[in-house]
Amino acid sequence: METEKQRIRELCTAFRLGGISNGIKALITEAEQQEMGYVKFLSQILETEATHRSVKDLNKREKAAWLPQMSDLNHYKTGSEDEISPGRLKQLRELNWVDQLFNIVLMGPSGTGKTFLAAGLCQDAVKAGYNAYFRRMDDLVNMLKTKDFVKTQQVEYKRLLKANLLVIDDIMLFPLEKNLAISFFNFINQIYESTSIIITTNKKPSDWSKQLDDEVIATALLDRLLYHCEVINFSGESYRLKNRKTIFEGS
């Protein structure tokens, strides 16, 4: 019996059936104890492999997403200072807008929860099976600068072109040189018809031309991002400043 079990594990390794290989001993023991029929035993084996692959795929997509540590929207607090009521949050988390290729613009001062919401929606999308990625604007700029001569950045570029959802955090926080502004526009132009995009920004659309130093590029970029788009405005005091810590007692 042990020889047969070992042979099963070897075959599972050869056929890359990691879930069955890891669980075969327990599966056989359970089948013997319950006097399980052949059909049920086969079903249990295949379910074990399916679960293993599903978890492995989720871990792979979570790793590629580059999510911040705080990305769980179950801890997101809705309030009167912004437009995210519990009902709207529920609708956003249903992710129907991703299938409809809608974009979301989260606009407002730093520290008001834009990144948390964007990252949380990205995490929900990853768990739902979408290819979803969270990237800061400087991540994208660095990728666009180096993709033509750094292999890993070329891989990153091709990965993002196939995204179902892309979060761009802190867009237009810093000015872009003309050549990078053009590269960024070309990138958005390639994905906007096949990818939902979430952007967070503390700049009004009217300020984008200053950051890009080109009104034509700014207008063309906004035209693509805002065509099918929900704009959500945030206001209020920065959460980080309001809850800042101090090293002094009694302060």
Automatic annotation (TrEMBL):
Q: Which gene encodes it?
A: istB
Task: Give the matching InterPro entries.
Answer: AAA+_ATPase, DNAC/IstB-like, IstB, IstB_ATP-bd, P-loop_NTPase
Q: Which segments constitute the AAA+ ATPase domain?
A: 100-233
Instruction: Tell me the protein family, please.
Output: Belongs to the IS21/IS1162 putative ATP-binding protein family.
Could you confirm whether the keyword Metal-binding appears in this record? no
Protein name (Swiss-Prot/TrEMBL): IS21-like element helper ATPase IstB
**This protein's record includes keyword Transcription regulation:** no
- Keyword entries, A-Z: ATP-binding, Nucleotide-binding
